[in-house]
Design goal:
The protein has 348 residues and is an alpha/beta fold. The termini are far apart. 32% of the residues lie in helices and 28% in strands. It is built from twelve helices and 18 strands. It folds into two domains: 248 residues, Rossmann fold (3-Layer(aba) Sandwich), CATH 3.40.50.300; 80 residues, Rossmann fold (3-Layer(aba) Sandwich). Helix 4 runs antiparallel to helix 5. The structure holds adenosine-5'-triphosphate (ATP). Adenosine-5'-triphosphate (ATP) binds next to strand 2 and helix 1.
Length: 348
């Protein structure tokens, strides 16, 4: 059975806003982070993800309850001991003066070095490994203040890795990264849980990646309820849809995607076989509000009402053509942009 690394008991998180007043963000949270698991903390803006991450990291004393790291109360651990067990990556830009990326990552070894901060060859090897793991070898000699937000974020993750902690907490680690890097970093974190048996909790707005990669999701709602389960459990229980559905946006339990409510423009018969062009044609038509009825051949279309529009996808290895039939008149377009623009102008 997996061992519990970080546990909370009746934790209440929030802020003392004045001498007499508190703002409670969530209460009675009793959860565990297990060794070898990647947990994604999800929730709408303002739900309390950052507050929870900071409270779990020993940075923001809770309003009630406790956080235990292995057997110890995290708020009673001496800073060097805490740094050996837990590393934290925040989104806030840190002012590190003139440090090179390499030096910043090597600071992650600080809890293990002697009084002078000298790195052993083993420390150096870990620093190199951490930098390589996040794909930042080419950045190592650059000054941190000259890095882009995404490049700096990778270095901050490498610094946290170099700390060789038992548990890593990351607040929106992929916020500044482009899509391929977001996938890479999430996969790396997942792989780390497998290879090092670390427990990793990261907060993110990347629902799609979380659904695909997390072992477990902690879903924090705006009224302070924490739903916990495999991503698929939370989709099936309706917790995902309840938390994220809002005016104009809807979570589709079948596809796991979010949809914008667009005004319905009518139905289109799409004549096409399967294939990538067909998939993206459907996406384009749905985006602008058409319901798509897919048919495989033209005979179906000949029986439909003349007022109904049909779109036929004709493709060969060199080009794609979209042939539109409306009221027995035929038009042709060479791009989805032209097709959508044309359909938008038709009154149906
Ligand atoms: N220093 C503070 N003092 C009082 N209230 C605060 C403070 N910081 C945040 N809050 C409030 O606590 C609640 C939770 O904020 P938090 O930043 O944890 O949410 P979040 O889920 O991380 O949001 P986001 O997704 O927008 O980053 C919000 O209502 C916020 O306004």
């Amino acid at each position: 059975m997996s061992s519990q690394i970080l546990t909370t008991h009746n934790l209440t998180i929030g802020y003392k806003t004045s001498r007499k007043n508190v703002r409670c963000v969530a209460s009675d949270i009793s959860v565990s982070l297990l060794a070898g698991e990647l947990v994604c903390l999800l929730g709408p803006n303002g739900a309390g993800k950052s507050t929870l991450v900071r409270s779990l990291a020993g940075m923001q004393p809770p309003l009630g309850g406790e956080v235990r790291l292995l057997e110890d109360d995290i708020y009673k651990l001496a800073p060097p001991e805490l740094a050996k067990r837990l590393s934290l990556v925040l989104t806030e830009k840190v002012d590190v003066g003139m440090l090179s990326a390499y030096t910043l990552v090597s600071l992650g070894r600080h809890p293990y070095t002697n009084w002078w901060g000298n790195l052993t060859s083993e420390d150096e090897a870990i620093v190199h490994w951490a930098i390589k793991s996040v794909g930042a070898v080419h950045l190592a000699q650059r000054q941190v203040k000259e890095l882009s937000d995404g490049e700096r974020q990778k270095i901050m993750i490498a610094r946290a890795l170099a700390q060789s902690p038992t548990v890593m907490l990351l607040d929106e680690p992929t916020a500044f990264l482009d899509l391929p890097r977001r996938v890479e970093i999430m996969q790396l974190l997942r792989q780390l849980t497998r290879e090092t048996n670390q427990a990793i909790l990261l907060s993110t707005h990347d629902l799609d990646l979380a659904l695909r990669l997390a072992d477990k999701v902690w879903l924090l709602t705006t009224n302070g309820i924490l739903h916990i389960g495999a991503p698929e459990d939370l989709v099936l229980s309706g917790a995902f849809a309840d938390t994220f559905n809002s005016e104009g946006v809807e979570f589709d339990v079948n596809s796991g995607d979010f949809y914008l409510h667009t005004s319905h423009k009518g139905e289109i018969n799409l004549i096409a076989d399967e294939g990538i062009v067909v998939e993206w044609t459907i996406r384009a038509l749905q985006r602008v509000g058409f319901r798509v009825k897919q048919c495989e051949n033209f005979s179906v279309v000949q029986n439909v009402k003349p007022t109904q529009i049909s779109v036929e996808v004709i493709s060969n290895s060199e080009q794609v053509l979209w042939r539109i039939t409306n009221n027995k008149t035929v038009y042709a377009h060479h791009s989805l942009y032209e097709l959508v623009k044309f359909l938008n102008c038709l009154s149906i």
